[in-house]
Every structure is written in structure tokens, then in C-alpha cells.
Write a sequence for this structure.
């Protein structure tokens, strides 16, 4: 077999071009590449065959494009001249913000094998064209006030168009930070820092007094202002303008400041009215009474707090009725005029179903009672909506942070012995607390508390302390500023029953909190026994006693508190919801009638005492006889004592012993009165008159048998009876004994016998003709 070879060289100018793909087609097919010198060859090609040789290499054209050999009869040479062709590509992309919205006007810089710049269009798009094949390129975006993700993109040995070279803008942000400390350099926990200006935010200082605001816009103007009940700060605020970098050392010095609220309550003549109850409600809640000169004082009133001052005394009205003090920054003087008003207009019932769209400030003021003033946080949200009281604790608030409602008038448990509330939802999250309390100040109270089970510490019978109820709260460094907890999920909670007497606190429990079983909470006062009972109910009908405690002093003037908050930083705590704050109707004790009577021979005379209003708790009342026309010891036994009504008892009887003296005398009276009610009040009928009916009156002489017979002798016969005759006729009547009907018949028979007697007929007739 005769074969031949086709070979050649491909050169770019004088230099052989390696790597060119050379394709043989026609009678036979094959492919090869030029060597380092640009040479190639196809051997063993059949004689007489027809063949075409075609070179190819990206970036080059060839002259001629191909060569053809028909009827091959000898070896052939096929050389080609290679001419480089400029091959270019495009790099393009888009710049968007975090919301995937295009960012126009961003500067895009190309560097590397070629250099160029462009700006994104209205949609954030850009492109670079005519980029040399095989080049190495870097694309970098820039825009004042922003960083980019990624910062740049690099493309090496460019061999194709590149799309999707995208970037996302990130605003350049900075941090403002500082510290709040006292004059001795000790950091203060829980101080509120408010950021205003280009951006707004609120944070609190940690245990070391440090705070920071992050994510602040480049070039922004900002004002930082510290605030906290009980504190003043130097400087009052600080400004940072045109923020271009992180700024630290924005520090403040805090000073604990208290004020005094004093006052005097006088009558129209300017004389002081003693024993007026004065209630201070708000960031600090307390009660006091005026002295003999009508003066009163509240000490240690925290600066910056807001308050309501309300005077009260039975039988008086006051002008003004109350005084509001907002953001107190100096001592306050309160003067009021008291006017005797035997039947004053009733004050609003403290009970509240929270049905309005606004808080009823005739009943409440925003504040706290059972935690110390530094724990009050005005940034805790308190509002009414949907027929409920909402209290939303703050997230991430370092130190104790509480708010809620406190009553502006006191509640007298001796008049309304049961006070309850419906807890629709307890606040959830680590360190949250939901509180229902009654008390006279932050050292004297009793309260229900629901808190996260992980928060409840073991309680000691002698020294248990409410989680956030210490004077250290928010006003001093504390280890309670642990890192915020994670987003809360429904977790076990505990129900605690707590008491503070003179600042000595006691807590019992915990009881695993069941939101359905423990939906209603009630304080019930057993005044005669001096007991406070903590009770829960699923329906406000069936109550279960959970705890009881002896109270040494009468609970006569108490402020009510519905509050919630956190004892330390907690992330995303849920809100507390309250409904149906209810006081039981005041029990009233009175006589059922203004008078009663009984015969002195009956042995006793009785009168009933009725309880109206609430019968939910025991009450007692004293009674005593005295006065009237009857003589104690002769006509009756002087009687006094105490009636005690048990739960649901409404009627009691007082019995006074009587003496039957067998003397003829007129009816006599005994005065009896009720006094000193305990656990309730007196009704309208508190005195009564008891009448002793005399049963010793003289009998009619004609009713006497001997007189009756003797009178017949005298009337019919005109003489006194002889002894035998008198005895006969008396015996005729008396033989009937106590049989009244028989005696009446014998008396008639006796009269008839005298009328028909011969002696009467002979001597007694008088005939008138």
C-alpha cells in the first residue's frame, strides 16, 4: 500500500505557534497539535485520497483558513500564518442594600490587567466591557458611609463574560459608650441612658456602671441623657456630633437625692386637724397621719419621681382633694382645708374591671409599693386595652425594673375584709415577677408573687427575702446583672406568698403556679383573730387557703399594688395581664329592730344583731346594756360582751336576764348599744330599747270569791254575812279550783241563789206602783 504524509508549520510572524489544533478531514480524519516550534504532520495517508487541513486556536485567525489536497500522489507541505485576534469579555453585577434594593451612585473600581471606574445606575447595576482575554481583574465598590459584602471580587485568567459580580452595602456604624458612677467612682447599676438625635434608643448600665450604644450611623448627631428615680446626674446630658468613629468615655456622675414632702391639714379657722390619713402614691408609696397640729411629713422621697398626695378622714371633705407632683426636684409643701361633712359624697369604689381605654386616675397612679424606689422604672409600659391592665416588662434592663398601678386612696381591711384580683397572665421569662400586694410602705406589706421557677431561691423560715425587694436594687452594684437570658419559652413558674414587717421579710412556698387553678388571688382579713389569709381560686367562687400569717397591728389603711417587672436583665419578657380588681362589700353590724319587749316573768329579753354586706371573713362587735328606767341588779342583769360572726354567719342574738320582783310597777326600759366593730363597720341601728313588761299589777277585788260573796250579802240582804253562810258560798265557788269556766258558772249560780232567797224576797224587794 502506497501512503504519503501531509505536514507543515504554523507561525505567528517568524515564530512557530505551539498548541494550535490542526484537523484533518476528507478520505481520512485525524487531529493533532503543533509542537513547540509550530510543526505538525499527518502520516500514512492513502494514495489518491482527498484531504483538508484546518488549524484553530482561540485568539487567532489563520492564512489560509485551510488547505485541500485532492488525489494525493506525493508528500505535501501545508504551512499557515497565524494572526492574533483581540478577544475581550465583560464583568458586570449589581449593588444592593440589605433589603435587596439597588443602590445607585456607588463607585465601582476595576484594577489589575486593566483599570477603570464606573458608578451604579438607578437600579444599582454596573459593568466593565472590553476586558482582555486571560487578564487578571479586581472589582472594588465604595460609597461614603458604607462597607460592602464582599469587600471586592477578583477574576484571574479571564476566559469568559462574568455576570453576578454583586455586592451588598452595609452602613458604616459606630459605638458610643461610657460609664455612670458615684462620686467615689463606684459604678451604679441599672441607670437608664436615653439616646436621641439621628437615632433613638434606651439602655441601662451594668453592674460596673458601663453602657454602650452600637450600630450608630456615621456622621450622626446624638445626645445622651441619664435618668433614674432617686438620682441626679452631672452633666445632665452630653452631645456627640458628626460621629465618625467609635467614641468612649461619655461618662456621668450620679448622686442619690431625696426630697421631703410636708404639709398641714387645717379647718376653716386655721386649726390643725389631727389623725387625717395622708396617702403618697407613685414611685414611692406610703401612708401617714397628721399629728395633733395637723402636720405630716414624708421623708426620703426620690427625686425625679411622680406622686399623688391624698388626704382622707371620715366625716370630712378636703380642698384640694389631692395634689399631683410630677418629676419632683425639690421639697414640696402640701396644704389642704378640711370641712366637716357628716354625709360626704362617697369616694369612688376602688374596685376596677379595667374596661376603659385609659387608666382611671381617680383610682390609680403609675408606681410601685413593695419594691424600693430605685426599682421603679418609668420605661416599663403600663396601659389598659381590651378590658385588661397590661404591664410589659422591659427587655435587657440591668438591675431591678418594675412598674404598675398603686391605689391613690387606702383600703381599710377592717371595712372591706377581702381584696382580690384576676391574673389573666403572669409575665414570663427568666427574672420576671408578677405582683399583687397590699401595704403601708416598702417595708411593711404582704404580697403574691409569680416568678420563673429558676429565679426562686430556697427560702428560710427566718430570713427569706423578696427577689427584688432590697434597698440595693438599682441603686448600687449588684451581682444580679447577669447576661440577659435567651428568648423565653413557656417554663415552670412558682407562686410565692411574702410578708415584710418593718423591713424584715418572710416568704413561703414556692407553690408550682398553675395559671388556671390559681387564676384569682385574694387577701382575706380575719380581723378578730388578726390574721391575713392568702387564697387562690380558679373561678372566684371556690377559694383555697394557701398561707396565713399573724399581723400584730390593725390593717386599717393599705395601698394596693398591681405590678410586674424583672429583677435583672431578661431578653423579651412577656407581659402581665390583670383584670377584675375587687373589694368585698363592707360588712355592717346593726340591730334588726330599734326595740324589743318581754314580760319580767319570762326570764330573758332578746334582740338580734344582723350582719349586712360581705360575709367572707369573721367580724366581731361589742355590746353592752346601760341606761333606761330599769335598775341593773334588781330588774335585770347588766350584760356586755363581744359577738363574733364566723364566715357566712349573718345573725346573732343577745339575751339579757330579767328578774321577776313581784312588785306592782310600770313597764321599765333597758338601753343597749353596739360598739367597736372589728372586721366591719356599724350600720344605722346601733342602739335599741328593751322594754320589761310588768306582770305584778293589783287584781280586781270582785274577782276574789270572799269579796264576791260578801258583796252579795250587802247588796241583796243589806247586812254582813254570818260566818257559816260566808263559808258555804265561798266554798261553793272555790271548789272548782283553777277551772275558770267552773268558777264562772258557780258565781252565776251564787248570784241566782241570793236573788231567789226568802230573806231577799221578804226584805229586799222594792215595789213601785
Amino acid at each position: 500500500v502506497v501512503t504519503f504524509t501531509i505536514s507543515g508549520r504554523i507561525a505567528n510572524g517568524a515564530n512557530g505557534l505551539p498548541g494550535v489544533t490542526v484537523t484533518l478531514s476528507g478520505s481520512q480524519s485525524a487531529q493533532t497539535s503543533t509542537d513547540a516550534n509550530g510543526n505538525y504532520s499527518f502520516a500514512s495517508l492513502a494514495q489518491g485520497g482527498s484531504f483538508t487541513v484546518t488549524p484553530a486556536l482561540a485568539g487567532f485567525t489563520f492564512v489560509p483558513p485551510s488547505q485541500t489536497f485532492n488525489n494525493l500522489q506525493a508528500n505535501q507541505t501545508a504551512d499557515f500564518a497565524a494572526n492574533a485576534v483581540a478577544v475581550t469579555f465583560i464583568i458586570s453585577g449589581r449593588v444592593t442594600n440589605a433589603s435587596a434594593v439597588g443602590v445607585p451612585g456607588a463607585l465601582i473600581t476595576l484594577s489589575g490587567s486593566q483599570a477603570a471606574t464606573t458608578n451604579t445606575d438607578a437600579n444599582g447595576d454596573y459593568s466593565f466591557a472590553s476586558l482582555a482575554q486571560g487578564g487578571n481583574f479586581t472589582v472594588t465598590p465604595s460609597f461614603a458611609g458604607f462597607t460592602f459584602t464582599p469587600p471586592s471580587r477578583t477574576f484571574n485568567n479571564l476566559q469568559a463574560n462574568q455576570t453576578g459580580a454583586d455586592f451588598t452595602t452595609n452602613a458604616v456604624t459606630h459605638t458610643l459608650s461610657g460609664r455612670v458612677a458615684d462620686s467615689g467612682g463606684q459604678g451604679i447599676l441599672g441607670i437608664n441612658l436615653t439616646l436621641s438625635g439621628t437615632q433613638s434608643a434606651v439602655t441601662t448600665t451594668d453592674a460596673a456602671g458601663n453602657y454602650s450604644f452600637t450600630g450608630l450611623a456615621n456622621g450622626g448627631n446624638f445626645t445622651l441623657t441619664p435618668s433614674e428615680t432617686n438620682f441626679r446626674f452631672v452633666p445632665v446630658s452630653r452631645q456627640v456630633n458628626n460621629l465618625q468613629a467609635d467614641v468612649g468615655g461619655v461618662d456621668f456622675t450620679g448622686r442619690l437625692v431625696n426630697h421631703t414632702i410636708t404639709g398641714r391639714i387645717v379647718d376653716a379657722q386655721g386649726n390643725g386637724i389631727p389623725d387625717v390619713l395622708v396617702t403618697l402614691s407613685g414611685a414611692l408609696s406610703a401612708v401617714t397621719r397628721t399629728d395633733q397640729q395637723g402636720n405630716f411629713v414624708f421623708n426620703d422621697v426620690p427625686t425625679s419621681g411622680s406622686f399623688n398626695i391624698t388626704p382622707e378622714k371620715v366625716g370630712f371633705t378636703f380642698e384640694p382633694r389631692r395634689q399631683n407632683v410630677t418629676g419632683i426636684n425639690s421639697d414640696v409643701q402640701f396644704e389642704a382645708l378640711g370641712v366637716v361633712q357628716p354625709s360626704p359624697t362617697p369616694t369612688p369604689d376602688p374596685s376596677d374591671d379595667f374596661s376603659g381605654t385609659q387608666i382611671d386616675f381617680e383610682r390609680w397612679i403609675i408606681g410601685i409599693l413593695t419594691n424600693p424606689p430605685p426599682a421603679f422604672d418609668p420605661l416599663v409600659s403600663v396601659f389598659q386595652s381590651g378590658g385588661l391592665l397590661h404591664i410589659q416588662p422591659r427587655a435587657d434592663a440591668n438591675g431591678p425594673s418594675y412598674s404598675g398601678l398603686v391605689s391613690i386612696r387606702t383600703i381599710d381591711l377592717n371595712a372591706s375584709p377581702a381584696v382580690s384580683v384576676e391574673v389573666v397572665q403572669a409575665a414570663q421569662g427568666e427574672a420576671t415577677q408578677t405582683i399583687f400586694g397590699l401595704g403601708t410602705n416598702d417595708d411593711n406589706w404582704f404580697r403574691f408573687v409569680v416568678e420563673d421557677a429558676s429565679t426562686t431561691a430556697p427560702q428560710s423560715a427566718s430570713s427569706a427575702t423578696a427577689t427584688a425587694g432590697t434597698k440595693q436594687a438599682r441603686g448600687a452594684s449588684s451581682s444580679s446583672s447577669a447576661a440577659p437570658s435567651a428568648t423565653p419559652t413557656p417554663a415552670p413558674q412558682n407562686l410565692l406568698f411574702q410578708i415584710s414587717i418593718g423591713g424584715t421579710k418572710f416568704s413561703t412556698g414556692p407553690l408550682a403556679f398553675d395559671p388556671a387553678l390559681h387564676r384569682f388571688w385574694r387577701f382575706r382579713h380575719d380581723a378578730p383573730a388578726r390574721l391575713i389569709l392568702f387564697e387562690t381560686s380558679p373561678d372566684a367562687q371556690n377559694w383555697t387557703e394557701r398561707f396565713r400569717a399573724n399581723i400584730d397591728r390593725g390593717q386599717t389603711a393599705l395601698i394596693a399594688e398591681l405590678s410586674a417587672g424583672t429583677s435583672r436583665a431578661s431578653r423579651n419578657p412577656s407581659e402581665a395581664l390583670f383584670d377584675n380588681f375587687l373589694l368585698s362589700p363592707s360588712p355592717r353590724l346593726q340591730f334588726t329592730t330599734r326595740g324589743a319587749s318581754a314580760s319580767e316573768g319570762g326570764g330573758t329579753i332578746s334582740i338580734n344583731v344582723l350582719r349586712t354586706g360581705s360575709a367572707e371573713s369573721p367580724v366581731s362587735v361589742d355590746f353592752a346594756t346601760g341606761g333606761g328606767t330599769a335598775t341593773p341588779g334588781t330588774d335585770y342583769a347588766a350584760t356586755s360582751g363581744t359577738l363574733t360572726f364566723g364566715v357566712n354567719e349573718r345573725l346573732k342574738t343577745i339575751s339579757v336576764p330579767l328578774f321577776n320582783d313581784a312588785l306592782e310597777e310600770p313597764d321599765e326600759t333597758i338601753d343597749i348599744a353596739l360598739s367597736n366593730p372589728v372586721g366591719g363597720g356599724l350600720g344605722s341601728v346601733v342602739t335599741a330599747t328593751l322594754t320589761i313588761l310588768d306582770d305584778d299589777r293589783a287584781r280586781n277585788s270582785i274577782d276574789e270569791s270572799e269579796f264576791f260573796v260578801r258583796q252579795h250579802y250587802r247588796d241583796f240582804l243589806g247586812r254582813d254575812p254570818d260566818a257559816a253562810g260566808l263559808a258555804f258560798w265561798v266554798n261553793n265557788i272555790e271548789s272548782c279550783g283553777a277551772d275558770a269556766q267552773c268558777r264562772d258558772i258557780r258565781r252565776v249560780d251564787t248570784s241566782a241563789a241570793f236573788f231567789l232567797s226568802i230573806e231577799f224576797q221578804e226584805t229586799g224587794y222594792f215595789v213601785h206602783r
About this structure: The chain is about 5% helix and 45% strand. Residues 588-693 form a domain with the Immunoglobulin-like fold (CATH 2.60.40.2030). The helical segments are 705-717, 723-734, 740-756, 758-763.
